[in-house]
């Protein structure tokens, strides 16, 4: 993946999954970080990532994007298993809410659901 970081500097950063420099991660304190690291596997659930990672749900209005990410992406990793799960659930709730908001907006505009019923 080649992209321009500004000032004419092009960076070639390849990830098999998701580049965390291209998509922000919302930390527990509400700040957002972007770092030139790759995520782990896609399609995780809270509590399912290996040690040193947590399951993060990226805020995308159309797609469910769940990836294992380094648990120290925001600095110090969550101190307890409860804090880790809280962050995982908080990111999932935030991404679910964003998709629901866009689904409602699309239904109001078109009168049709954007996705088939499950």
Q: Can you tell me about this structure?
A:
It is a single chain. With 118 residues, this protein is of the alpha+beta class. The protein has one domain. 25% of the residues lie in helices and 19% in strands. It has one helix spanning 81-110; strands at 2-4, 10-12, 25-26, 32-33, 53-58, 65-70. The strands form three sheets. The chain has a two-stranded antiparallel ribbon. A two-stranded antiparallel ribbon has the order 3-4. The longest helix is centred in the last third of the chain and has 30 residues, at 81-110. It is globular.
What is the gist of this entry?
With 118 residues, this protein is α+β, with helices and mostly antiparallel strands.
């Amino acid at each position: 993946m080649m992209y321009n970081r500004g000032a004419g500097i092009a960076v070639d950063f390849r990830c098999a999954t998701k580049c965390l420099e291209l998509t922000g991660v919302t930390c527990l304190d509400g700040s957002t970080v972007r770092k030139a690291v790759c995520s782990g596997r896609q399609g995780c659930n809270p509590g399912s990532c290996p040690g040193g990672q947590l399951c993060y749900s990226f805020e995308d209005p159309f797609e469910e994007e769940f990836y294992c990410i380094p648990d120290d992406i925001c600095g110090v990793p969550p101190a307890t298993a409860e804090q880790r799960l809280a962050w995982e659930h908080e990111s999932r709730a935030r991404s679910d809410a964003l998709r629901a908001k866009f689904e409602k907006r699309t239904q109001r505009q078109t009168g049709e659901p954007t996705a088939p019923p499950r």
